[in-house]
Amino acid sequence: MTENTDEEHFENPVNNQPENPPDQIIPPTDSETITPNQEIENMEIHHHAHHGGKKNWKAFFWEFIMLFLAVFCGFLAEYQLEQTIERHREKELITSLIEDLKKDTTSLGVFQDELKTQKLMMDSLVFYLTASDLKEKGAEVYYYGRKPSRFVFFNYTDRTIQQLKNAGSFRLIKKPTVADSILKYYSHFELISILQNGSFERIDEYTRTSRQLFNPLVFEEIVSDETYNKITKPTGNPPLMTYEQNSILEVISIIHSLKSSNRGLQVQYTMVKKEAEYLINFLKNNYHLD
């Protein structure tokens, strides 16, 4: 029995060395060991994330409030920007309108002087046509006889008022008193247009009627391309086409009508010029312009 045991021991020697010697380094594995506690924590985290997706009415309410405030603030910013742009545009239009009014006042002053000069010329023409020595005053009669038909009527500067009316820009004038003052000023030009048309009709009538008195060749002499804006007296003593009294009186009658029309224009020009000056100061004060 003993011999058999020894043989078995010899054939299967026992390895008494440890499986992992101390100096041997065990390489780490790719996967970490998950403890039961970690598994529980992971399950709890997943559990809370899942139930956090369900929103109650308070969450929806606050989201609505925030969205509403964002939209409302955007609307206010856009509205404020639009108001700023419109105020800037309004000031530009008022500045442009003031420039137009300044041009009107200058032109009205010139036309007032022209009406005064024309009146003096027509008074002189009537004086010479009724003179006892009319046949000796040919040069003077032709000189003053050319003046009544040489007149250009006033036209107001409508650059800005047309923009206000046609482009719908009148809505930019926020102050009612300013809008009313502007409309009041430009309403005068309807009457001025009527009076100017009346004067133009008298001038046309004078031109046709005076042909029976004046020789056109003499007019050709005193008005040339070089001196169109300056009439000179003809040389010598050119005769009239006729000295018949009724023809002369007919011309004088038309001159009288033309002077009456021009007096009406003179009154309107004076009044509108004063209103233009007032409106300029009114607009400057309201919009703080220099």
Quick summary:
By secondary structure, the chain is mainly α. It has helices at 2-11, 36-52, 57-129, 138-145, 159-166, 176-209, 216-222, 245-287. It has one domain.
Secondary structure class reads mainly alpha
How many beta-strand elements? 0
Estimate the mean pLDDT confidence.
80
Radius of gyration: 52 Å
Compressed to H and E, one letter per element, the order equals HHHHHHHH
Biggest beta sheet attributes: none
Number of helices: 8
Strand fraction band? under 5%
Taken from the alpha-carbon principal axes, the silhouette is rod-shaped
Detail the topology: elements first, then pairings.
Elements: H1 2-11, H2 36-52, H3 57-129, H4 138-145, H5 159-166, H6 176-209, H7 216-222, H8 245-287
Helix pairs in contact: 3-4, 3-5, 3-8, 6-8
